[in-house]
Each structure stands twice: as C-alpha cells, then as structure tokens.
Specification:
This protein is mostly beta strands. It has one helix spanning 73-82, and strands at 12-16, 19-20, 24-37, 50-64, 86-92, 98-112, 120-135. Strand 6 (98-112) and strand 7 (120-135) form a beta hairpin.
C-alpha cells in the first residue's frame, strides 16, 4: 500500500545498480530546467519571454563510511575512477510509492573523518539522459 501523507525520509534511498548505497543518512534528487530566451522585437512590452529548454537532474547523498560495505565508498570510488555509467534509482522501500530512475556518473566523492566520531562520505551523481518516474513494487 503506497505511503499517504508526508513521506518519512527514512524510507527513501539511492540505489546504484539495484543495490542501496549502504548506511545512507541523507539522499537528494534535484531536477532542473534551463529555460531559453525567446524574446524578439515583436514581444509585447519590455519583459523577456522564455520557452522551456533542456532538463537535467542530479542525485547525491551522505552515508556512513565502512570499507566492507556492499555498496559503499569503495564501490563508488571504483565507479568514479573508471568513469562507469551507473543505473540509478531514487526510491522508497514501500510498494506503490513513486520512484525515479536513470543513468548517471559519479561526479564527486568525499570522505569526512572527524576525531572520535563516525566517519562519513558524500557523493554527487550527474544524470545522463532522461529521468523516469515509476511505481515501486
């Protein structure tokens, strides 16, 4: 049964090649559209006019750093180093909820290792091509 009301962020994870990034603490999906200016001498008034332009999307997140994680820092490092194309999903674990999938590349990866605290890492992914909405099953 799909989630109703405000979605608890704990339910949503980023998946890389069908496996969730291990021990995520935050995940983000950003979709943008770059409008293109279409103003000409025939445009009424002095205001600029725009039409829809290219769309793009990014995903990113933060997770606990564990070198033995199935889909953790080391796996993302390898994908970044090799410039590997990754199958990605931003989705809930609840059947019937909406999710978003596409192909992308790791564009940044960083580790944070504060004294006497959990080590974490952050990653950014640039989507390549369309982002598709789907329903989780």
């Amino acid at each position: 049964m799909p989630t109703t009301g405000t979605v608890n962020g704990r339910l949503i994870k980023i998946y890389v090649d069908n496996t969730a990034v291990t021990c995520q603490t935050n995940s983000t999906l950003e979709m943008t559209m770059e409008p293109r200016e279409s103003t000409c001498k025939d445009t009424v008034g002095n205001a600029a006019a725009f039409l829809a332009g290219r769309t793009s999307w990014t995903m990113g997140g933060e997770a606990k750093l564990a070198f033995d994680a199935t889909k953790g820092f080391s796996a993302l490092y390898t994908a970044w180093k090799n410039g590997s194309q990754l199958a990605l999903a931003f989705q809930s674990t609840v059947s019937g909820d909406k999710g978003y999938s596409g192909i992308g590349f790791i564009t940044s990866l960083s580790a944070d290792t504060p004294d006497n605290e959990d080590s974490t890492f952050s990653f950014s992914i640039q989507g390549s091509g369309a982002l598709t909405e789907f329903t989780t099953s």
